[in-house]
Design goal:
80% of the residues lie in helices and 0% in strands. It is an all-alpha fold. It has helices spanning 2-33, 35-39, 46-67, 71-79, 81-106, 110-130, 138-158, 163-181, 186-210, 221-228, 231-247, 250-256, 259-271, 278-301.
């Protein structure tokens, strides 16, 4: 009888892990190709695109919550002071992250965005160790050091720290940590986040329109279609990511994140022909080496099914 119970538990754990992997692939695959989407709005300032993204996302998730009859869950989340504080922090983090990513894509800096998301799993390692108490292996420590060397090399070669890449990596890692530690579902959490930031976005757009400074006043029909549809590339991968983060260990989620920066890198070089200099090659070489070391080490340590799951 105990053997049967153990087998059932193992099968359940495996299903949970496989489901988490599928959610992560959906999230990171979407993020990897969405630079193509945001590039269509390159003639509109990033801040204005961000405001539209927030409002259309708020409308989309609000409709989804109403259809599912979960509007009460939003009120409950906002009523709990601890949950409200954590989601307020995650709202600020994802708002900054969205803005930086849109700006990087529309200003021809997709390579920096790619670098940031290559670095992000290694930031996850540090946060997993420092905040969640997850163990870090010697190989992972080497990977983090090698990634830091890559950032230092790029900074030395260009005379400036690649602040876009660093900021994207840090803000998204902290966002993932917030969403992992708050006791709300993915859709509820995203709903609260967009509700919290929507008034700011609405006021900003109102001011721009009142002053005649809104670029969207002169936007084409195609640009308006992309703006109106911006809730989908926002909500779908974020919901998938939140679900993956709930099912998988924080460190494990980082392994699959390599899908996104790889696709972004290919977009930057193959589609938009951004300059890839020798300095980029050395810095990315360090990052790719760090990623390889960490990925192999993580796969070796995650052979047991339980290693794929969050620590209870």
């Amino acid at each position: 009888m105990p053997d049967t119970a153990e087998s059932t538990s193992t099968a359940s754990d495996l299903r949970r892990a496989r489901g988490g992997v599928l959610w992560a692939v959906l999230a990171y695959g979407s993020w990897g190709v969405f630079p193509i989407y945001w590039k269509q709005l390159r003639h509109i300032p990033a801040f204005e695109v961000l405001c539209h993204r927030v409002l259309w996302s708020c409308a989309l998730v609000g409709i989804a919550m109403a259809i599912q009859g979960q509007l009460g869950a939003i009120r409950s989340a906002l009523a709990d002071s601890k949950t409200r504080r954590v989601l307020l922090a995650s709202t600020a983090l994802i708002g900054v992250n969205w803005f930086l990513f849109i700006w990087a894509v529309t200003s021809g800096r997709i390579l920096q965005a790619s670098l940031g998301y290559y670095m992000n799993p290694l930031v996850n390692v540090a946060l997993g160790r420092l905040v969640l108490g997850e163990r870090i292996s010697p190989a992972a420590a080497v990977a983090v050091a090698l990634a830091a060397a890559g950032v230092a090399i790029m900074a030395a070669g260009t005379g400036a720290v690649p602040w876009v890449a660093v900021s994207l990596a840090v803000t998204f890692a902290l966002y993932g940590l917030c969403r992992k530690t708050v006791a709300v579902g993915p859709l509820v959490g995203l709903s609260v986040e967009t509700i919290l930031i929507a008034p700011v976005a609405a006021i900003a757009l109102a001011v721009l329109f009142a002053r005649g400074q809104a670029a969207t006043q002169h936007a084409t029909r195609i640009e308006w279609i992309f703006l109106a549809g911006s809730g989908f590339p926002t909500a779908i991968p974020l919901l998938a990511f939140a679900e993956a983060a709930r099912r998988l260990r924080f460190i494990t989620v980082g392994i699959l994140q390599y899908i996104a920066p790889t696709l972004q890198f290919l977009c930057a070089v193959a589609i938009y022909h951004e300059a890839f200099t020798r300095n980029h090659a050395v810095a990315f070489g360090c990052i790719w080496g760090a990623v390889a070391i960490y990925a192999v080490d993580s796969i070796v340590r995650a052979k047991a099914p339980g290693k794929l799951l969050p620590r209870a």
